Amino acid sequence: MIARGFTTYRWMIDFEYEGMVETAVVLLLASLLRLVYQRLIRPPPPRICGAPGGPPVTAPRVKLRGGRHLAYLETGVPRAAAAHKIIFVHGFDSCRHDVLPASQDLLRRLGACVVSYDRPGYSESDPDPCQTERSSALDVQDLADQLGLGDRFHVVGFSRGEQVVWSCLVHIAHRLAGAALVPPVSNFWWRGFPGGGVSRRAYAAQLPQDRWAVSVARHAPWLVYWWNTQRWFPPSSLIARDRRVYSPPDLDVISKLAAAAGPRRRPHKAEVKQQRVFEALHRDMIVAFGEWDCSPLELSNPPPGVAVHLWHGADDRVVTPAMSRHIARQLPWIRYHGVPDAGHLFMLADGMADRIVKTLVLGD
After folding, report:
1. How far apart are CA 91 and CA 85, in angstroms?
2. pLDDT-based confidence at residue 353 (cuts at 50, 70, 90)
């Protein structure tokens, strides 16, 4: 009887001891995972422009709904005298200083004012932790209203910035006078692409590191910061500035721009990510390849009175033109402009931006 009681007591002690060990192991693993998340996976907080310890505010800014600010830059004729108002949406790893490269002479002759703005988290515009494709369009609308651009205005998006233009066509088409997408970065997971077809082939045509980067942005956005800052695997080619992503026409454009401007071609380069890389580049990727409320391919009717132009270089290796051609076939009210012997950066070549602006404003 005593022996049996002792055995039972010993079993209870062993059971409690094993439970304590398991609890300790779980707590240790949880602590390690928390440490890994805090040190490696979770991005550091942004350095807000104008906040204590943050970069200074040097640009004119407008205040949006919810209190955020957008910084902007104007080129061309003054807003008050402009016959045509154009909002230019910059691309990936850029800012308001990377303006629509149309000649000032053309803008004066057309009576056009161009407003280029920093997208959220870039340069001097406040980050938007709740950013979606819809909020991007509402930012454009708020900017136009704050600057008094009128009931209708034109929008031009370059590269990743064209996704904001797509969102404008979905959410605020009634405010647009015209739209140009040059050359558009499409979301491989937009509804409306045929299963196993053009979007899958376009995805497969990317460099392997870019397939991984956009997949992480799509399926594990909480890992985007770690993926693009770790040293074990190559990050996005654009973040890594890997020139293999560019075609020979692109490299020619880059070479000519560098030769013309010298080593200070982009003196604002450091300003682009001054509020930290996550709020600029990484969140940009998450929004670009995440879930959209409405796919542009679901637009059934052309926006009333809005001429939409889509430009794409035939030798674009950053974004294959196949997806753009498919969109233009499915939405026949979009005028497709294929540019032969051109890559992703063709808008920066001599005369191309003038051609795009004239087509947009005059319908040439």
Report:
1. 20
2. very high
Q: Give the distance, in angstroms, between the CA of residue 56 and the centroid of all CA atoms in the same chain.
A: 24
Smallest CA-to-CA distance from 89 within 162, 187, 167, 174 is with: 162
Please tell me the pTM assigned to this model: 0.88
Q: Which residues contact 271 (CB under 8 A, 6 or more apart)?
A: 55, 95, 97, 123, 124
Q: How many CA atoms, within 13 angstroms, populate the side-chain half-sphere of residue 200? A: 4
Tokens of 64: 């949006």
Q: What share of the chain is helix, strand, coil (3-state, %, to 5)?
A: 50, 15, 40
Identify whether the C-beta of residue 284 lies closer than 8 Å to the C-beta of residue 149: no
Q: How many CA atoms lie within 13 A of 257 on its CB side?
A: 17
> What is the Cα–Cα distance from 260 to 355, expressed in whole angstroms?
21
How far is the C-alpha of 314 from the C-alpha of 343, rounded, in Å?
Answer: 7
Domains in the chain with CATH codes: 61-362 (3.40.50.1820)
Give the contacts of 201 (CB within 8 A, at least 6 positions apart).
320, 322
Residues near 228 by Cβ (< 8 Å), separated by ≥ 6? 213, 235, 236, 239, 277, 281, 282
* Angle between helix 162-171 and helix 133-147 axes, rounded to 10 deg: 80
Tokens 């509402």 belong to residue: 138
DSSP state of 318: S
Supply φ then ψ for residue 30, to 5 degrees.
-60, -40
Cβ-proximal residues to 176 (8 Å cutoff; 6+ apart), any chain: 152, 153, 154, 155, 168, 169, 303, 306
- Does 28 have pLDDT greater than 50? no
More confident residue, 25 or 358: 358
Q: Report CA 204 to chain centroid distance, whole Å.
A: 20
Residues with Cβ < 8 Å from 131, sequence gap 6 or more?
Answer: 120, 121, 283, 287
Coil, helix or strand at residue 23: helix
